[in-house]
Amino acid sequence: MGMRAAILVASLLTGVAGCASAGETPDWLAERAAAADEAYPSLRDVPRTHDANVDPAHWAAVQRDLIAAGQAVKNSPRAAPASATEAPEQFLEEARRDLEETRQSHTP
Q1: What pLDDT, on a 0 to 100 scale, did the predictor assign at position 35?
Q2: Interatomic CA distance for residues 94 and 100, integer angstroms
Q3: Rounded CA separation 40/45 (Å)
């Protein structure tokens, strides 16, 4: 029973302390709250209408254009996956050889 009494007393003290300080708002807090209120837009300024294009013909044309662009990308030779025979080491070796040839051509 002693534990319950202690919890009850602690709860009452917390409630009384909360009520005692509820009426006293510090000046700095009031200033900050006023500044915050001015920073947010008013919900009354939110438009109630929209200007979205809801024409099905327009979106069908957009869809056709998108599908055509996707097909063009798929048909591009750059879209083909690298072959399994091409090894990164081979590419690096060829690049180093080309670089060295270029250096040698510029050396007097």
Answers
A1: 80
A2: 10
A3: 11
- Asked if residue 73 lies in contact with residue 79, where contact means CB atoms within 8 angstroms, the answer is yes
> What's the CA dihedral at 6, 8, 10, 16 to 10 degrees?
-150
Place of tokens 């040839």: 101
Distances 45 to 39, 49, 50, 52, 81 between C-alpha atoms, Å: 14, 12, 14, 18, 52
Structure tokens at 65: 């254009």
Q: Which pLDDT band holds residue 20 (cuts at 50, 70, 90)?
A: low
Tokens 């025979």 belong to: 85
The pLDDT tens digits of the residues spanning 46-94 come to: 888 888 999 999 999 999 999 999 999 999 988 887 776 667 888 889 9
